[in-house]
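Onboarding guide, step 5: your first structure request.
Type a short instruction followed by the sequence, for example:

Predict the 3D structure of this protein.
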Amino acid sequence: MSVRALLILGILAGLAPHPAGGAELRNLSFLPHWLPQAQFAGYYMAQAKGFYAKQGIGLTILRGGPERPAVEGLARGKADFATTFLSAAVQQRDRGVLLVNIGQVVQRSGFILVTKKTSGIVSPADLNGRKVGLWPDFRLQPLAFFRKYGVEVRPVDQGATMTLFLRNGVVAASAMWYNEYHALLNAGIDPAELKTFFFDQHGLNFPEDGIYCLEETLRRNTDLCRGFVRASFAGWEYAFAHPEETLDVVMQHVQRANVGTNRTHQRWMLARMKDLIFPPGTAAVPGLLKREDYHRVAAELKRNGLIREIPPFGAIYADSTASR
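The system replies with structure tokens like these:
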């Protein structure tokens, strides 16, 4: 039996305890860091299948998005748990928000640069002097990529759509493999027409979605925090094993929030999230934040002047995998 299979059995076994005799659930809230979509399918399914309830948690999933910053929700006590990127979490910790990673969900970065083969860009060096679309809040990884290969690009602020790239306003654009890349395919571009640079394949794996809470929450409710992590990963396992049922639930969340998307796009996103959470051909441990991944991200933040000091690994991460 594989290491992952044994770990998942441990997760499911950890779901066995539940409030006996109809004991009252502890009401807690969770704030995803973006709008409802399959990126958060595991949490939706853990709620729908009663996995949180089995851990004694009556969970409310709040609506995330750009107008409801997840870390701000934690800091102000509006949410008990939230997701965010590791790079964002380290910056917030440096600014005095005492948040803790209690479960690293995404193990492989889904962040890529994409370009059209007609642009003649086949290697990082070919980006030198060219216009590249960069998201204002997510430049860390691309900048590390450019530095690694000694190229200087002409950065252009990229919005929430791929319109600038589609209209040839930039030769390369930022994209998430589970989201914007598929939007390009939906726009009629054949995958064979595109060249992609996956940052993780260039030694720049910056883990993204992780589960966070405040130090105080972890100190006062250690068992419930661990239960939240166990239930969440059980939800992800269920989601990947039952994709059509999961898409039904995802679309309910999407429609309630009036998010402009469709089932086909969400199906792509769900499949890609599986690749990022449980990367094929690796022995990735669900929930584990690798020390080397953390220091890679933190060192790059410090190099770019985005943090003053690198927070100790033991301060920002609490291993919840051992409890399984």
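Each response can be followed by summary notes, for example: The radius of gyration is 20 Å.
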